[in-house]
Design a protein that fits this description.
By secondary structure, the protein is mostly helical. It has helices at residues 58-89, 92-119, 122-145, 151-180, 185-213, 217-236, 254-264, 266-282, 285-296, 300-323, 330-348, 353-380, 384-415, 418-444, and strands at residues 11-12, 41-42, 446-450, 459-463. The chain crosses the membrane at residues 59-77, 83-104, 125-145, 151-167, 188-211, 217-237, 269-293, 299-320, 332-350, 356-378, 390-413, 419-441.
């Protein structure tokens, strides 16, 4: 049995833009309808040595080390896969279609995956999913290294991998809490984001080298080995130190219950809505980067890997910044989404690849700040008994939206031009963020206050009466 969750230290009760994270759903007899725990917000600036304090938990250190290797290999496969499809087909639309096949299952089956995460042990789900992912990567590697690979092979494997993701992602999101408990949950989410983005910095660079030197096959082989290492890491975890949540018994209406719960809470609904706009229009950035590297800057596979690495540089900075964030606010989620869209709009105006790359660094920073804040707010706003279903709905929007956005942006880049495509990619989320900000300000009676005498906070949001 797992030890009881430790009490949070050095925290204070937050105010989330006058929209409380605690709300009660009808039929309080159901454990999933209980009042959400207050969101812990660090009230003082963390020492730098505590930036990634979740790593002090032994199980999380084991998980993080294996996850780091796996993420590098995953990025290598993603870059190699997209570039391979582009080379085999000569079509950016085909790259977008590959993205759609990989993410489409989450759009239709995501809630079911969340229900499985609530009903069954998360660790076992992850072991099974990683085993299948290793087999798929090995098949891709074999086909590529034997020079028998065709576009339809990549399509089929991308679809099957998407089905694996349906189960893997919600279980992985909720499993973080079982590794560290509620005390370090927010920090652990930031650590995971840092690992993912650091892998995104290393993986594309390695993929660019491999694509140029030996081809895509070895990138797929590396991912197969990494998935096997992830299985080994999961088997090494100390079971007696996990904060295992009690599986929810099967009953009718579980999916409807999760949807009703998510829609009833502002701190889940609004991040969910913003994630939808960002996912559809701005999360298929690799598709656009492939178009810019190939058609605009003529930089080849190395240039494509470089642009993805620059996005990861900004995202890594954003991940570290998010780990040190003291306050978790709904307004921060909306603001970061708007800034991400604005950076993509600026990239459309870049006069050279150097300026475009600089815009990608800033875009990566704000994208990661948004994703981390939204993930944290949704997770800590949901009770453990229903968190798998809530997170699956969030992932369904975030990943499933890319299934729509990938082909759409690929078509725009190919039939109009990449500059128009990236302008649409950033403009829609920026406009959506501005609209949501106005709606929330009116609901909460907030306004902007400018005080030129306050050099540290010249512009801030205050209540109408202030």
């Amino acid at each position: 049995m797992a030890p009881p969750p430790p009490a949070a230290a050095n925290v204070s009760q937050p105010t989330i833009d006058s929209l409380t994270a605690s709300s009660r759903i009808p039929d309080a007899a159901d454990p999933s309808d209980a009042i959400t725990q207050p969101i812990a917000v660090v009230s003082e600036r963390l020492p730098w040595r505590h930036t990634f304090i979740a790593l002090k938990v032994p199980n999380f250190r084991i998980f993080a080390s294996g996850h780091f290797v796996a993420v590098i290999a995953l990025w290598m496969q993603r870059i190699a896969q997209d570039w391979l499809v582009l080379q085999l087909s000569g079509s950016v639309t085909a790259v977008g279609f590959t993205v759609a096949l990989q993410f489409m299952p989450s759009l239709f089956l995501g809630p079911w995956g969340g229900m499985m995460a609530d009903r069954f042990p998360k660790r076992r789900i992850l072991i099974g999913c990683q085993g299948v992912a290793a087999a798929l990567a090995a098949i891709l590697a074999t086909l590529a290294l034997s020079h028998r690979i065709e576009v339809w092979h990549v399509y089929v494997i991308a679809l099957v991998l998407g089905l694996v993701t349906v189960l893997d992602q919600p279980a992985r999101q909720v499993f973080v809490n079982e590794l560290v408990g509620p005390k370090y949950l927010r920090n652990a989410i930031s650590v995971n984001s840092t690992i993912f983005q650091l892998g995104g910095l290393i993986g594309p660079a390695l993929a660019g080298v491999l694509l140029t030197a030996v081809g895509a096959g070895w990138a797929f082989a590396a991912n197969a080995v990494a998935c096997c290492s992830t299985v080994s890491m999961l088997l090494m975890l100390r079971k007696d130190e996990l904060y295992v949540s009690t599986p929810v018994p099967k009953r009718k209406g579980m999916l409807k219950e999760g949807l009703h719960y998510a829609l009833s809470k502002p701190t889940i609904f609004w991040p969910w809505l913003m994630a939808g706009f960002v996912a559809v229009f701005a999360m298929s950035l690799p598709v656009l980067l492939a178009a810019f590297a190939d058609n605009i800057y003529r930089a080849g596979a190395g240039g494509y890997g470089l642009l993805n690495a620059l996005v990861a540089v900004g995202a890594l900075t954003g991940a570290i910044t998010s780990a040190r964030r003291r306050q978790l606010r709904l307004r921060s989620v909306v603001f970061c989404a708007g800034m991400y869209g604005l950076m993509l709009c600026l990239a459309a105006l870049a006069p050279s690849m150097a300026w475009f790359g600089a815009a990608m660094v800033l875009a990566g920073f704000w994208c990661l700040m948004f994703l981390t804040a939204a993930n944290q707010l949704v997770q800590v706003s949901a009770n453990m008994s229903i968190r798998g279903r809530v997170m699956s709905l969030y992932i369904m929007v975030l990943i499933g939206g890319q299934a729509i956005g990938g082909p759409m942006l690929g078509w725009l880049a190919e039939h109009l031009n990449p500059h128009t495509a990236i302008l649409v990619s950033g403009g829609v989320p920026a406009l959506a963020a501005a609209t949501v900000a106005v709606v929330l300000a009116r609901k909460s009676a907030l306004r902007l206050k400018v005080d030129v005498r306050d050099r540290r906070r010249m512009v801030r949001i205050v209540a109408q009466s202030a």
